[in-house]
Specification:
alpha+beta
């Protein structure tokens, strides 16, 4: 299997400023009910991503299911299809913080120095070895576990002063 290591060479470089502008637009788009539902659904799929990166993924590929970088896909036995354009997100560039004193509790803490643009690809943009099905289960209020979780979430929302209204269609 030949893997083309150069993907979208002709694609213009995306700057951090361009992604921040796209992020601001994404925040405006999730202000309504449908946008908010799409954002929550994306959060359930990409819980390991920061909120802003989830908005960036939604703006570029709303139907995304699984994301990984080029080399991660290779390690998983898949490769990015020729000509695919990646999804641009922001990654922190960090450095270890020096202990300010001997009493400093967190000498290994990391400080964000700046942000850089990184590219990830969605599963449909790759081919190769099939991945196992996603282990996440969808909970509904039709199940005992779903009702329990929903009740706990309502308790947390009310404790935080958040009004919860039913929007049953």
């Amino acid at each position: 299997m030949a893997v083309d290591a150069v993907v979208s060479v002709e694609a213009p470089r995306t700057t951090v400023a361009e992604l921040v502008a796209r992020l601001e637009a994404g925040v405006r788009e999730v202000q309504d009910g449908e946008g908010w539902r799409a954002y929550l659904a994306a959060m359930s799929r990409f819980h390991q991503y920061a909120a802003g990166n989830i908005l960036l993924v939604l703006a570029q590929k709303p139907d995304a299911t699984r994301l990984a970088g080029f080399h991660t896909w290779l390690r998983l036995g898949r490769h990015v299809k020729r000509g695919e354009r990646g999804i641009r997100i922001l990654a922190p560039v960090t450095a270890r913080r020096q202990a300010e004193s001997e009493d400093d509790d967190e000498p290994d803490a990391r400080t964000v120095l700046r942000w850089r643009v990184v590219t990830v690809f969605e599963y449909s943009q790759t081919e190769g070895t099939d991945l196992p099905p996603h282990p996440c289960q969808t909970l509904t209020t039709d199940s005992e576990r779903g009702r329990w979780l929903f009740a706990r979430l309502l308790e947390v929302a009310r404790a935080e002063g958040i009004e919860v209204r039913a929007d049953i269609r």
